[in-house]
Each structure stands twice: as C-alpha cells, then as structure tokens.
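Task card 7
Instruction: Convert sequence to structure tokens.
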Amino acid sequence: RYGVVKEFEAAPGSASGLVRNYTLLLGSDETVLSNTSFSFDAGEAIGYGPTKTGEIGFISLTKVGSGSAVTAKTSGRIKVDDTVYPMSDGAVAYGGDYPKNFRALSLDELTSLDNVVSVTLYADRDVTNGGSVRVIIIRTR
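Output:
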C-alpha cells in the first residue's frame, strides 16, 4: 500500500524520540503506525507492506519528478508540466493544504484541481531503472 505521512510525533516514553508514531493516509484510510528504522517528514510519500526481507514494514520511495501542474493523465502515464512519466495502474494521489489536511484524490481529478502550488511524484525506483510513479502529491492553497 502506498500513502503519505500526515504528521508524526515521538512515541510517549521513547528515549530522545527514537520511536515515532506516524499518522499515515493509506488510500482513504488514516492509520497510526510506529517506527524506529526510518525517519519520514510530514508530506512525504511512503510505502507500507512486504519489504525485501519479507517482513511487513515501511518502504522508502524515490522522488522522480515535480512541477506546477498535472497537464495530462492517461492509462500508464502522467504528464507534469512538459515531462511524461510512467505511472503504475495502482498509483494513488493525495492533495490539499499541507499534509495535515491532505485527502485521497481520484486520479481523474488531477488535471482539474484549482490553486495548485506544487506536484511531486514518487516511484518505487528511479524511472530510468524501470520504476513507475506510485504516489502523486499535490499541494494546494
């Protein structure tokens, strides 16, 4: 599953904030998970599921592009400004006013959003190495 970090805080009783409680938006579900292995910021895209070792946990994603608007979207591709990126059929999108007010977005509404400040694309690996966009984050005013 792919999502976005809405906010985080040190877990109660954790020494020096080593354990963080993350409030995540995974699809349209809000979930709180704890972690010590990764350090994510609010507004950052993440994956959560089976890791390379087979355990369930956080998966880091790679920022592959950014711009000011989604100008086109078709099956398997997304265009941000003048650049086209490969996109997974299971890609998810989130948007809104800074992370605490993010909500899940339909991929069909990406080209019609008003007051877009920025668009950031995250993939499972760099697109030059066969990666595809998994998470689209659109910040609005």
